[in-house]
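Input.
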Amino acid sequence: MKSRKDLSVRGLTGTLVLTMLLEAVMWGSVLTGWTTVGSAGTVDEDSMSIVGLRGPFVELKTSCLLAILGIQKWCSVATGAVTVRYNIVPTGALNIMPPSGFVPFVLTSRFRDAGNAQRVLLQLKEVNLQSGGETTLLTIDSDSFSSSTNYQTQAGPRACGFTFNFDQNAYYVEAQISSYTGTGPSPGLETIWINRCANL
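Output.
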């Protein structure tokens, strides 16, 4: 028969192990940044007629002659600009504020810009809760990078050089996806994410 002392030691050990596991889970959630897929945003009313949503992607609406056969050839792409907005919430890493009052972040996106007549433009915006004043904090412009028919991942300028204050402001990303060629592949946006700088 086990003594009360043995049972007490085992109970204490189990409690310590459980506490350590909970702390690990909590620390992991603290370091988690904000992410979204392109198709999860709110599409502007003026863009409804030309937007195309496909899995995680937001693109311009594309029609292919042999699409019913699963063949993506002889396609036409809608022309114009699609505007999509993404609300940023203070989850995990975005809601940590050290005594210094500054936490550096990096904004990254995965997009496709296949040529000169196409563009994907992301603007990170801050809206003051009291005054309603709006400021553009950061811009990622696909025209700043080499064009490609494949999706590419790029970090925005001023990486590790901006922070958030959710006590005083609200934040959102506005994406504009435009094409004026009428041919494919369409420009598109697959993912956006914001996280703490790994090296700081």
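Residues 16-29 have pLDDT under 50 and may be disordered.
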